[in-house]
């Protein structure tokens, strides 16, 4: 019996007319016989051909690896499985076929296979289906997995459905599924915990205890999620205790951990505590320092903010554009406009280029305080640097004009901005 060999198009020469053997050289008569089976693919013709030349599992795998339509691949696989009941399908490329197929057709194909046909691939084959189904159907399939497919769900299946529930904002259902996972003695992972706790910070500490009781070690990312959530709710003291607990379990906090904690302290107007924490840290970065400087300025503690700014160089964290923008914004809020302008000059002297936020901060502060000459000077300087403001910036200027009683100029500015360059109009308006 002649050897059956499958071919696919080879465009190495650019003409697309050659045929390359997948399994090796073959007689020319075999090439002529199998050429019409590939373009277009015809299952009925394949059946007729293979009635005299049986197809081996290896060659079936090669055929399924071709760029066939999902429906065609499923039809071919189903037909071959029915005609070869003793076949083990573990070596066939089923994952891409099932992932590309409609979920209902894919499930029907898996139902047609006996439990002994896919001894080790069954859950991995179901994972793409769990991802593609809506939350309700995914949960139903999870319930059916032991009886319908003879496979017990592992943490992989639970994680997929937890992610689906989280994306659908079904956080209460995610918590219920997490606790069911614990009852079923399925060890959770840190990813499982993060998904289950998403949006439910109030219950996150309890979930963490449950996870630790299961013997699952929490990593730094798990603790960081909790610290961020607690600080976002203003529960900074609990977040600080969690950081202490984190260290007792041998998990060292990262720069991100301390950054979240410093941000929480500053948002709750605890700048002094943030400064004290900053001094205890072995290493700091520019983001941490910027956070605490902003917190000090928000509470009116200019001297402390200036002290932090001046020590940045000795800490190995030279000020960046965000540092200067924070300082200028804080100085303007405190009425220290001259100091803010001098900070701009110092910024350029230190080789830090201003950005649009820098100029917008000063320009809006001048406008809000009726300092129109200074505003015009700052605008000219901004235009000379090649910057132009966006609509949000001009909205602030129009608001300042109205607040200062310059309604005619504000109205004229709005009307002319529709058809001309807004920067030039504003410069002419405030002259």
TrEMBL record:
The keyword Transport does not apply. Keywords: Repeat, Transit peptide. PPR repeats lie at residues 154-188, 219-253, 285-319, 320-354, 355-389, 390-424. Gene3D superfamilies: Tetratricopeptide repeat domain (1.25.40.10). It comes from the Eukaryota. Pfam families: PPR (PF01535), PPR_1 (PF12854), PPR_2 (PF13041). NCBIfam families: PPR (TIGR00756). It comes from Zea mays. The keyword Repeat applies. This is Pentatricopeptide repeat-containing protein mitochondrial.
């Amino acid at each position: 019996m002649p050897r059956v060999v499958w071919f696919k198009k080879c465009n190495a020469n650019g003409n697309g007319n050659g045929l390359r053997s997948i399994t090796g050289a073959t007689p020319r008569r075999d090439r002529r016989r199998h050429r019409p089976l590939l373009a277009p693919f015809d299952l009925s013709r394949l059946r007729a051909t293979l009635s005299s030349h049986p197809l081996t599992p290896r060659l079936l795998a090669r055929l399924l690896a071709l760029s066939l339509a999902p429906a065609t691949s499923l039809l071919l696989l189903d037909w071959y499985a029915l005609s070869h009941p003793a076949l083990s399908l573990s070596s066939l490329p089923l994952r891409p076929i099932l992932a590309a197929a409609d979920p209902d057709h894919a499930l029907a194909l898996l139902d047609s296979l006996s439990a002994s046909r896919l001894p080790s691939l069954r859950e991995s084959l179901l994972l793409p289906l769990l991802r593609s189904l809506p939350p309700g159907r995914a949960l139903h399939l999870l319930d059916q997995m032991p009886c319908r497919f003879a496979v017990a769900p592992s943490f992989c299946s639970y994680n997929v459905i937890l992610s689906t529930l989280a994306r659908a904002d079904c956080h209460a259902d995610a918590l219920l599924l997490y606790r069911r996972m614990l009852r079923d003695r399925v060890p959770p992972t840190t990813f499982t915990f993060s998904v289950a706790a998403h949006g439910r910070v109030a219950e996150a500490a309890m979930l963490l205890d449950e996870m630790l009781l299961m013997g699952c070690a929490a990593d730094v990312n798990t603790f960081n999620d909790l610290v961020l959530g607690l600080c976002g709710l203003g529960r900074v003291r609990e977040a600080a205790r969690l950081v202490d607990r984190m260290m007792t379990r041998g998990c060292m906090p990262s720069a991100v951990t301390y950054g979240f904690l410093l941000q929480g302290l500053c948002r709750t107007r605890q700048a002094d505590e943030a400064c004290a924490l900053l001094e205890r840290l072995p290493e700091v970065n520019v983001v941490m320092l910027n956070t605490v400087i902003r917190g000090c300025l928000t509470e009116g503690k200019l001297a402390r903010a200036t002290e932090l700014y001046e020590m940045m160089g000795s800490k190995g964290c030279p000020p960046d554009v965000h540092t200067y923008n924070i300082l200028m914004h804080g100085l303007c809020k405190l009425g220290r406009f001259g100091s803010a302008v001098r900070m701009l000059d110092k910024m350029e002297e230190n080789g830090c280029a201003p950005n649009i936020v820098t100029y917008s901060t000063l320009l809006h502060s001048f406008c809000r305080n009726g300092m129109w000459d200074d505003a015009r000077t700052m605008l000219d300087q901004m235009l000379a640097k090649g910057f132009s403001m966006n609509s949000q910036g001009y909205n602030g200027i129009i608001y300042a004009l109205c607040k200062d009683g310059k309604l005619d100029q504000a109205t004229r500015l709005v009307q002319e901005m529709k058809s001309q360059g807004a920067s030039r109009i504003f410069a002419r308006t405030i002259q």
